[in-house]
Specification:
Layout lengths: L58 H4 L2
Length: about 60
C-alpha cells in the first residue's frame, strides 16, 4: 500500500512533518541445498523484469 499526501502552505518558512507507521514483514529461511539452478531458458518469463539491473539485483553477478 502506498500513501500520498499533498500539502500546500501559504506562508514561507519552516515546515515540520511527523509520520508514523507500523509494518508487518515475514521471512522464510530456505536451505541453500534445497534450491536448484535453472538455465536462462528455463526461467519464468514473469520473473525476468526482476533480474534487470537495480539496487536489489546486481545483474552483472547474476549473469555469471
Amino acid at each position: 500500500m502506498n500513501r500520498f499526501s499533498r500539502i500546500k502552505t501559504i506562508d514561507p518558512g519552516i515546515l515540520a512533518i511527523h509520520y508514523e507507521a507500523e509494518t508487518e514483514v515475514s521471512t522464510k529461511i530456505v536451505q541453500l541445498a534445497s534450491l536448484r539452478a535453472d538455465t536462462t531458458a528455463e526461467l519464468n518469463p514473469e520473473g525476468t523484469p526482476f533480474l534487470f539491473p537495480s539496487r536489489y539485483c546486481q545483474s552483472d553477478i547474476m549473469g555469471q
